Amino acid sequence: MSLIFAAKSIITMNPSQARATHMAVRDGHILAVGDASHIAQWRQAWGDMPIDESLSDKILMPGFVEGHTHMMEGLFWNYDYVGYYDREGPDGNVIAGLKSIDDVVARLSQINQQRDDKTQPLIAWGFDPIFFDGRRMNTADLDKVSTDCPVIVLHASLHILNTNSLVIEQAGVTPGDNNEAVRRDENGHPSGEFLGQLGMYMAMRTTGLDLLGAAGSAQTLINFANVARQTGVTTATDLANPVPVEAVQTMRDTVSQDSFPMRLVVAFQGGGADPQAGIARIQELQSQQTDKLRFSLVKFVADGSIQGFSARLKFPGYFNGADNGLWYIEPDRLKALISAYHAAGIQIHIHTNGDECTDVALDAIEAALRENPWPDHRHTLQHCQMANRAQFKRMAKLGVGVNLFSNHLYYWGDAHINITMGPERAARLDDAGGALAENVPVAIHSDAPVTALAPLFTAWCAVNRVSSKGVKLGGETEKLTVEQALYAITMGAAYSLHMDHEIGSLEVGKRADVAILEADPLQVEAAHLKDIAVYGTILGGKVHVNKRGAK
Amino acid sequence: MSNKVVPITIIAGFLGTGKTSLLNHLLAHAEGRRLTALVNDFGALNIDSELIAAQNGNQISLANGCVCCSIGDDLTLALAQVMNQTPRPDHILIEASGVADPARIAGFAQVDRELRLDGIITLVDALAHQRHANDPHLADNYQRQIAAGHFLLLSKTDLASAAQTHSVSQQLAAQKPTTPIAIIEHGVFDAKVLLGLNETGLLPAQAEIKHDLRQWSAHMTAPVPRLDLLNSLSTLAPHLLRAKAVLHDAEGAYVLHYAGGQSSVSPFDASPSGHFVLIGKPDMPDDASLEQLLTPQAPLPAHRQTEARQ
Ligand SMILES: [Zn+2]
Question: Which 3 state secondary structure label does DSSP give A121?
């Protein structure tokens, strides 16, 4: 089955043929790329092919590749969305954004009123206080929703949640003097905001529910793929997953369906005590790969997060004087793990947020390379937000790539300037420009559901480097150009997944995976990159139109 | 839902300091308690297969009623699941990872009235102490674990020289003058000290106190103001390891748990037995002094017993 797509313009990401207007597709792969003048020749060589004109006013790009997301993005659609922005659900319906805390309370009250059983827990997600100018949600707000059932509002970052006073009463909160996980009001009482694991624990205890329990279900996968597809993504990652035996069949059955609109790369969650068992598991999983489902890499999480003060920082540490963060894996054990997986020829992605952690990861990779040279390993540091030029130089020499957390610039940029690292280090936070200048392969990511999954938004962050309060972080040296940013969300991410020979550009022989846009990202102003509407995607030659695009 | 308050003990310490040996020992000497241990790695526990009653997925049930659960990647979930189960265990042990901050884990007890932090046990490798204390990447973590510990147990002393052990113990004592420091050999340490005394506050009749520990117990029918008692106990640190009292004062009956410098007092909703038990190191003040300290006003305890054994 062959077909020619006609577009207004095609941005190919193929340097030898940057632009085109027509693309022929056969059996899920790209047969030819060119313009109207080539069609006769193509038909002569490859046989007669119909032309699909339905996209002739659209801009085509290689389908976006999201190199660091989590399948859990699909989980939250089981709960009620109360975020700031309009958000398209996996069913394609748009849920209106809520512009004040009162709006959130009103929405939740309405949902509660319409329920039959008003004693069941009410759980919402996507709340983001950065838009509400310093005002924090508290128990008084959520008590207006209900005092008869637990009300739990998960913040978009997932690091924080709010509860009503019933939850605090039921749990019996008695925070010690320096328990920073329990926010307090001016009278010293718990305000209803809880950080990190303690909040999640309380929510699970008072509701009796495992809020994240459906993480591996078919519905979660489908939700995840649909949410990603609506932003132009054709390949995304689950970074990472312990991949229990029973999960594999669900993944295979779900992903293989024609209606499943995405390729999924699942990273095996390493870090267990026995690397040989993990290696055997990955090898076993790799024997079950398909064109849409890959188990190509292992991931380690070596430290925590900067805004949670759990990342490992070098001198002089946190700007506000907080204690240095936590290792999630001991440096010696990380070294042993990297050595073992590297020796087995398995690509490694390592979560390193703080610069001390980045050093330790690079030491470990360097040691592994001395033991077993491997020129094209493409081990990648994930987040790597505080890396400096010396570290980028070292990464380039070692063949290590980086996948930077550019969305952080927007979401936590202000906190980084004022609280976590101060202006100098914040200016080179997620320094994609610096990494490229030092010849490090660069991708950029959202870490969804931690921040919004939308590669054009992530590209906008890397190009504009502006916080949610409108403050610039760094400048020309650290930013990406729009071209570089578009490369990062296509070829850059594909390279980091060892898939750049298959996806990431629109050129002959590659998979016909396409993002269909309403405007040309190289023509709009850089400040409007994030506002470009996505009409749909093409995956392996099959068109998926967004509900919004269809009208 | 049962309202039983479950004591929780956190076992901290670097990799290789003997957390697993200690866990094995406690599981084998549960003395009728149904312990649930949340562990990082089943394999390392190496449980004798004859002791395993059932195994499914991330849970192993032992013949003596104890259970081991693998933490996997999510301590929050593992702990919430144990607490949401009926019946609840008598005591929860958490094996902290080698780089965890046990004080953060202890925070769970502050947001769950049905959990009571019984204590944090930090294992210190006598042989590797200097190396750990000077590790460029781990020194701060090490200090945090020591700072958070209510009991500091020195392991690997059989491999270290006597001088080395002495020096480590001196350094720790200087750093934490009120925290009990003791030597643990091959993971063996008295479960009554680490996990507390049984529900009535009495030791089983055949109970033996080992490891050069001393026990003092009394039966007190007169009211004992709880704040006075807490003050008195605090003067006994670091010699006092463990205490339990079921007494009353003007506010009513109460139960007091003391473990390595940290105490908790909660109302007791039955008639108080008047039992009061202390377990301390050999250097704990002598019986007469204890009696004077803890029962400052007449009348003298109606009944008392003391013992000191090897
Ligand atoms: Zn992540």
Answer: coil
Contact (CB<8Å) B110/A182 = yes
Per this entry, what is the length of chain A?
Answer: 551
- Residue B61 forms part of a structural domain: yes
List the 286-345 stretch of A: residues with Cβ below 8 A of B. Answer: 312, 323-324, 326-333
Smallest CA–CA distance, residue A158 to chain B, in Å, is 14
> Does B189 lie in the same domain as B40?
yes
User: Of the candidates A212, A328, A331, which has its C-beta nearest B137's C-beta?
Assistant: A331
pTM of the model: 0.90
Pick A326's closest partner by Cβ from B99, B111, B112: B99
A143-165 pLDDT, tens digit each: 999 999 999 999 987 888 999 99
Q: For residue range A222-244, what is the model confidence (pLDDT) as tens digits?
A: 999 999 999 999 999 999 998 98
Residue B307: per-residue pLDDT = 42
Return the closest-CA partner of residue A8 out of A58, A71, A68: A58
Cα of A496 to nearest chain B Cα, Å: 25
Residue range of the domain that includes A159: 72-211
Order of strands across the sheet that contains A293-301:
A64-66, A233-241, A263-269, A293-301, A347-352, A380-383, A401-404, A442-444
pLDDT tens for each residue of B56-85:
878 899 988 999 998 877 899 999 999 998
> Cα(A196) to centroid of ligand 1, in Å?
15
Q: Which residue of B has its CA nearest to A176?
A: B110
CB pairs under 8 A between A and B: 90
Q: Are B88 and B65 in contact (CB under 8 A)?
A: no
Interface touch B99/A327, C-beta < 8 Å: yes
Residue type at A480 in one-letter notation: L
Q: Which domain holds residue B108?
A: 6-200
CATH number of the domain that residue B41 is part of: 3.40.50.300
Domain presence at residue A95: yes
Tell me what ipTM this predicted complex has.
0.88
Token representation of residue A319: 């700007």
Q: Report whether pLDDT(B306) > 70.
A: no
pLDDT at B310: 33
Q: Say whether pLDDT at B189 is over 90.
A: no
Task: Show Cβ contacts of residue A276 under 8 Å, excluding neighbours closer than 6 positions.
Answer: A340
Q: How far is A180 from chain B (nearest CA, A)?
A: 9
User: Which residues in chain B have their CB less than 8 angstroms from residue A174's CB?
Assistant: 110, 113
The answer to whether position A141 is within a domain reads: yes
Structural domains in chain B (count): 2
